[in-house]
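Researcher: Quick test of sequence recovery. Tokens follow.
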């Protein structure tokens, strides 16, 4: 079985310090959380950035500032900028981090009702546009899928040549408007991707660790972090992103699964540094 790739989604665009004081806003806080996650066993940092007041931004200058600061402390880690941004941002606004030529970036494969009047828009043309920009720069897309229909979209666009192999999916499960975080639905998602594809599971809230366990057993990979869940156990806030990663490492060791280094993660995912 392949070694386990752990991704740490350290802050996201929605969760705030009101939810957990350890959620990073500033450059220094982002470095602290990325370093804690890496030292605990994460090989990928899934990165959103904020201004110091917590406002999410896709500004390329802010991304560069944060990425450069993280690299100064943990030079080997894979940094995966989000191109999801926040609801209401334009396509080109969301794509700004690609100007920095990251090794990986996220590619959302469908539209989602986040709740109330918030709609996360990703039309077919948007997905194609993002895929083409990533292909031009040699950026490895992580295919973010919140439902089975988004897997179907990714596979259809692969057949048309927009999304290239080897494909790597991220099953984001338990989001309002998307597929649930049950084991039944994990099995459904897992069985819907090609045999030669890899996948990561990101369980939201209480689904984070049960789905991590399922992925560890199945041979997939795991995403944890304060973007998805701010609790280390029921009712107990996590002290850091590193604490969330460390829990997954303990689970993996109990099941005999070794943890991938960044170099090993690059080899598994077909990334050329």
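Model:
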């Amino acid at each position: 079985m392949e070694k386990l790739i752990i991704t740490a989604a350290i802050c996201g665009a929605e969760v705030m310090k009101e939810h957990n004081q350890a959620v990073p806003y500033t450059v220094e806080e982002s470095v602290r959380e990325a370093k804690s996650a890496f030292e605990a066993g994460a090989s990928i940092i899934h990165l959103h950035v904020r201004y110091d007041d917590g406002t999410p931004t896709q500004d390329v200058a802010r991304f560069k500032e944060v990425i450069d600061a993280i690299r100064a402390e943990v030079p080997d880690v894979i940094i995966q900028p989000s191109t999801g941004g926040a609801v209401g941002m334009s396509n080109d606004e969301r794509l700004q981090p690609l100007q920095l030529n990251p090794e990986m970036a996220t590619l959302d494969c469908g539209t989602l009702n986040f709740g109330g009047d918030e709609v996360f828009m990703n039309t077919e043309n948007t997905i194609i546009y993002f895929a083409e920009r990533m292909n031009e720069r040699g950026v490895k897309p992580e295919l973010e899928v919140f439902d089975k229909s988004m897997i179907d979209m990714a596979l259809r666009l692969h057949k048309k040549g927009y999304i290239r192999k080897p494909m790597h999916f991220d099953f984001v499960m338990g989001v309002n408007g998307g597929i649930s975080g049950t084991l039944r639905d994990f099995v459904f998602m897992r069985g819907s991707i090609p045999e030669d594809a890899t996948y990561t599971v990101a369980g939201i809230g209480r689904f984070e660790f049960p789905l991590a366990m399922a992925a560890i057993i199945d041979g997939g990979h795991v995403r944890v972090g304060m973007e998805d869940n701010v609790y280390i156990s029921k009712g107990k806030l996590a002290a850091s992103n590193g604490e969330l990663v460390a829990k997954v490492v303990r689970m993996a060791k109990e099941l005999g699964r070794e943890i991938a280094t960044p170099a090993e993660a690059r080899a598994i995912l077909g990334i050329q540094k």
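The chain has one domain: 6-269.
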